[in-house]
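INTERNAL AUDIT FORM
Audit reference: QA-55
Scope: verify that the stored structure record matches its stored sequence.
Auditor: D.O.
Record contents follow.
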Amino acid sequence: MSALEQLPVTFEQIQEAAHRLDGIIETTPIAHSRALERRIGSPVHLKAENLQRSGSFKVRGAYNRMVRLTPEQKAAGVVAASAGNHAQGVALAASKLGLEARIYMPQGAALPKIAATQGHGAQVVLHGTTVDEALAEAKRHADETGKTFIHPFDNADIIAGQGTLGLEMLEQVPDADTIITGVGGGGLLAGVAIAAKTLAARQGRPIRVIGVQAEHAAAYPPSLAADALVPLKKVSTIADGIAVGRPGQLPFSIIKELVDDVVTVSEDDLARALIFLMERNKLVVEPAGAVGVAALMNGTLNEAYGNLGTTVCLLSGGNIDPMLMLKVIQRGLSAAGRFLTVRIMLTDHPGELRDISRIIAECDANVTGVDHTRVGGALSMGDVSITIDMETKGKDHSHEVLEALQAEGFRPEVIN
């Protein structure tokens, strides 16, 4: 018996989920990225699930789980916990099915995600400072009231629903050699892996499935190495959609059998990927949805596998808080060498700021902000601290500006 035949979620369950979701979800488009193809040397297609209803793939699993509830369970209502995407998926599914939904979200959840969840008719309760704390309270409420708890990833129906993305990707790109998707708890990666590996096996060919995590929220690499769930002590990443400190037991049992690799990307990698997707593909994607592109751009996968062949990269969601987007854009531009902030300590003499401005202008950089400070704990009498923000044209141009300032006796300190 093959590994595919022994899994706790079957390919047939994914096919059944696809039938249930017909007319409920959108078949999201595939976009060919010539810019990424030039970078990695093989065709790259982007599965734009950020354009899905509710802004992410989560509605697939949520609806598939909830439509199968008994009449008694539907009457009692559902409860869930999420920082955003699962919340919106459950809320949308509940509105489609006419169910009452209570969603626990951590304090500090993005206001647009709270508003969107409420917009689908769900009751939102803010509890705790982390998703884990919100999850614990949601489970307690479900036990107390008899409502059904809708887990974000550790459930067979959820995994089967998310696996419908694997069917779509291989229907749209039937010759795919590599599929890349982000992973948090693991429901999405597990479902996609079942669908992709089964379809490829039936065609008598191999297919590579790779998961990607943010490096400061990467529970899967140590768990896979230990062949046991290894919870993280701390999770910290801008990719809140995959900020999960402990893999789900059910998806882990699937991923360890089917997935070829789980790699990590840095916060700067994520910021660069978001900028790239906005500029080159005109797509607004949240950090969790951009991890696959980040892994392609930083060269990790090419170094490990060489030519990836025809690649499909899943953009799993587009629910990004505008305030976070502003910060990410600045970080991404900085990481790409296109935004430079320097601090320069000066003596408080006339003309020094004029000289600095002249040097920057001669280097054809564009000053966007100046902070001029004469007082502060680190400043001596007669000293001035100048902080300058400027737009540059890349890393080489940034170095040129710094060298020009140094050549005229200034000592710029890069602070971003």
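Auditor finding: record pair retrieved intact. The two ends are 55 Å apart (CA to CA).
Action required: none
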